[in-house]
Design a protein that fits this description.
alpha+beta; MutS, DNA mismatch repair protein, domain I; 3 domains; eleven-stranded mixed sheet; 10 helices
């Protein structure tokens, strides 16, 4: 390879090298030469025993090349994501080669809707505890058994104890829609109490309400490191049979205005995966989202081989991040929006401090008539 510093271009001119690299989908051929993008040049130097000479014929080191591209955000992170995909024997190309593809499919969830019943019951809210208690035991049991509102008796042991307890989200929801009457606050006051102690409380509540009004059962996701666990319409505690119903989905709320360490996001997805639950990310908010161009175009495998630019089409777009990086909900939403416009799913590649790469596939979720965006994030092994 020869590197031209002024144009920041890598050129391969040797005919046998051009032929060898082209066959494995490196570079862009032009006349009798091959132009490489920076990550390709570094990979050839790093893995394929290539050499790179500057315009004076001096051999360049990895760092002498890489430092030329420090102006590209997370350039080394991007390189190791590129390297990992290439090392798996599958093709990765520059994002600028992306065109428009067929629409990426969203996953549809059932959404029968929900009419909030009216209970002739009173509840008392305890602000320090973020909880309400109901004295009407008969109504509390009906609410719990039929629609899984609150907790009657003791968790997983309804015959031990006799009061109904509602968490703060259930309290606001039921009081807001007139299902119960608060004795000591209005639902608006309870909302303000929640917002005072948690910056994103209102956004989290809105997601709770969004799922409940579509017939889903929404309970705390604390044990799994998320805001909620979700049960599909019709689920109930089923304690009369002695069997506990386990949720299969968890929801985490990541407002556009919020920032999050990628390591924290990865941890939550891994926990969900380890207990066989689908991790759903909600990105609510009114902040306008600027489309974020991901880093690479990814080809994948097919029966009997791999997808290639000349015989197939790409499957994903890759966004590369490192474990120490903070991202915002708006940034992630922008990358997802770009992928949606292109017509491909987004693949998150998170590089840890040892340059090992973990992949998460982002799949759009369609919750009928919802004004919020939801996405399944699934751990993937390419």
């Amino acid at each position: 390879m020869e590197f031209f510093e002024e144009d920041k271009k890598f050129v391969v001119g040797n005919a046998s090298d051009v032929s060898s690299l082209s066959k494995t989908y490196f570079g862009t051929p032009e006349s009798a030469v091959l132009f490489l993008f920076p990550e390709e040049a570094l990979y050839i130097l790093d893995v394929r025993n290539g050499k790179c000479l500057n315009e004076n014929g001096k051999e360049m080191t990895f760092n002498e090349i890489a430092v030329q591209f420090n102006y590209i955000p997370r350039f080394i992170t991007r390189y190791y994501a590129y390297k990992d995909w290439r090392d798996r024997g599958i093709v990765i190309r520059p994002i600028d080669e992306a065109t428009s593809y067929s629409k990426c499919h969203s996953k549809k969830y059932p959404s029968p809707g929900f009419e909030v019943p009216k209970y002739n019951a009173k509840i008392t809210f305890y602000p320090e505890d973020k909880m309400s208690v109901m004295d009407d035991n008969e109504t509390a049991k009906i609410m719990y058994d039929s629609l899984w509102f609150g907790q009657f008796g003791t968790y997983k042991s309804v015959k031990h104890g006799s009061f109904g307890k509602l968490d703060i989200y259930e309290t606001i929801f039921l009081a807001k829609y007139g299902a119960v009457k608060l004795t000591n606050y209005t639902w608006e006051q309870v909302m303000e109490i929640g917002k005072k102690d948690a910056e994103i409380f209102e956004a989290v509540y809105n997601v709770y309400e969004d799922w409940r009004m579509r017939g889903f059962i929404v309970k705390t996701g604390f044990k799994f490191g998320t805001h909620f666990r979700i049960y599909f319409p019709g689920a109930s505690p089923s304690l009369d049979t002695g069997d506990w119903v386990h949720s299969k989905h968890v929801v985490h709320v990541f407002p556009r205005e919020m920032q999050l360490l990628t390591s924290d996001l990865s941890r939550a997805i891994r926990v969900a995966h380890s207990v066989k639950k689908t991790f759903i990310l909600s990105i609510p908010g009114t902040m306008e989202v600027e489309k974020i161009k991901p880093d690479y175009l990814l080809y994948h495998r097919r029966k009997g081989g791999i997808e290639t630019p000349d015989k197939g089409k790409p499957k994903y777009l890759m966004l590369a991040m490192n474990e120490e990086e903070k991202i915002s909900g708006a940034y992630l939403a922008g990358a997802i929006e770009y992928a949606k416009e292109i017509g491909l799913d987004l693949m998150l590649a998170i590089i840890d401090r040892e340059t090992s790469v973990t992949y998460y596939r982002v799949k759009r979720l369609d919750l009928k008539d919802s004004r919020y965006d939801y996405f399944e994030l699934e751990w993937d092994q390419p």
